[in-house]
Amino acid sequence: MAGRKISIGCIADDFTGATDVASIFAKAGMRSSILIDVPEDGTVVDADAVVVALKTRTIDPSLAVEQSLAALRWLRGEGASKLYFKYCSTFDSTERGNIGPVTDAMLAALDSDFTVACPAFPANARTVYKSNLFVGDVPLSESGMRNHPLTPMTDSNLVRVLAPQTTRKVSACYHETVKLGVDAVRAWSAQARAEGFGVGVIDAMDDQDLEVIAEALSDDPLLTGASGLAYGVARVLRKGIAQSQSANRIDVRPGSRAVISGSCSTATNAQVQRMLRDHEGFKIDVAHLAHGRDVVSEALRWAEGRLGEKPVLVYATAIPEEVKANQAKFGVADAGDMVETALSDIAKAFVEGGVSEMIVAGGETSGAVVKALGIKRLDVGREIAPGVPWVSAPHAHGPIALALKSGNFGGTDFFLEAWDSLS
């Protein structure tokens, strides 16, 4: 490959997670690029950190493993000796996976016998203590994630969550060990390996903990976690990398602005309601989609004359009771598919009609929109909020500025304030 050697290759299980982790590497001064799915042969990427964005969080575990291993093989073929498996800081998955099966497969492919699982992301109030994941001061199982429409999380103990998913024994490293420093974590890791454990859930309460963990396990070929641990990894790696002066610059062109929201998280519900106080919005009704109404055309007619510098909102975001009612009527998978298809069709038509700056809320929605637009690469720009950067995508109509937002991220005014950081 021409250009610089990849210092770290990352495999993300959804598209918002890919932009999230790439932003962490970019902030550390590393030239970062995101590739949508495994690239074709002959693709050349000039970057220190390369993130392959997959859409594997909720698909069949066997398909998730297949796609993740294909990404791993490509990254290793491009020179990446350090691999990172990125999943959500709420560790959400199905009962069969896919965090456990993908981790098992990657370890086997790398001929490695041990890795850690650390979804802590202190910058977004995700911490792990005594193997329990907290969202702010609330255990995960008591947070809004208990009502997630696809991956509800009803247990905060990560050892219990992960153990049924993996064929490997799961150990735990508590904060009492992490706070003792690098040597203590290395000693714990060596002992866990000696005792036959294959995965270790490790506590982290702040960024310093994440740096300790990354330094202690710097010789391991694979680490797994959310973007928090990637922060620690970046801090370790950047010591040998020249700082990039263009890491946060993206292409922006004049055009209209829009918000496409499919997430039904507590945070996104609040963001939608806040935006509707001052802006117009069009709600996608699942029942209308199920009964065959051409909701996409209705939304596009509504948007005519409204699109401009002032952003408009198209949303399927709903409260948990409404989501559950729709799932009961139309099926979990079918309801989700109908919404994703409608929102991605609307986003594609928006771009063809002159929208050049777009916020997309929700991991599944972001994946559907990016695929509908035919985007293959994203360049990382300025961070809007922890875990959410602006990214730029080349497109036939000119570069598109996108903010692919995890449903749980961002403050209440996110949809209104994000544009101020676009440059």
UniProtKB/TrEMBL annotation:
Classification via SUPFAM superfamilies: YgbK-like
Keyword Kinase annotated: yes
Family named by the database record: Belongs to the four-carbon acid sugar kinase family.
Catalyzed reactions per annotation: 3-dehydro-D-erythronate + ATP = 3-dehydro-4-O-phospho-D-erythronate + ADP + H(+); 3-dehydro-L-erythronate + ATP = 3-dehydro-4-O-phospho-L-erythronate + ADP + H(+)
Source domain of life: Bacteria
GO MF annotation terms: ATP binding; kinase activity
Entry protein name: 3-oxo-tetronate kinase
UniProt KW keywords: ATP-binding, Carbohydrate metabolism, Kinase, Nucleotide-binding, Transferase
Coiled-coil positions: none
Residues annotated as transmembrane: none
Residues in Four-carbon acid sugar kinase nucleotide binding domain copies: 258-415
Four-carbon acid sugar kinase N-terminal domain mapped to chain residues: 8-232
Organism for this UniProt entry: Rhizobium fredii (Sinorhizobium fredii)
Enzyme Commission designation: 2.7.1.217
Task performed by this protein: Catalyzes the ATP-dependent phosphorylation of 3-oxo-tetronate to 3-oxo-tetronate 4-phosphate.
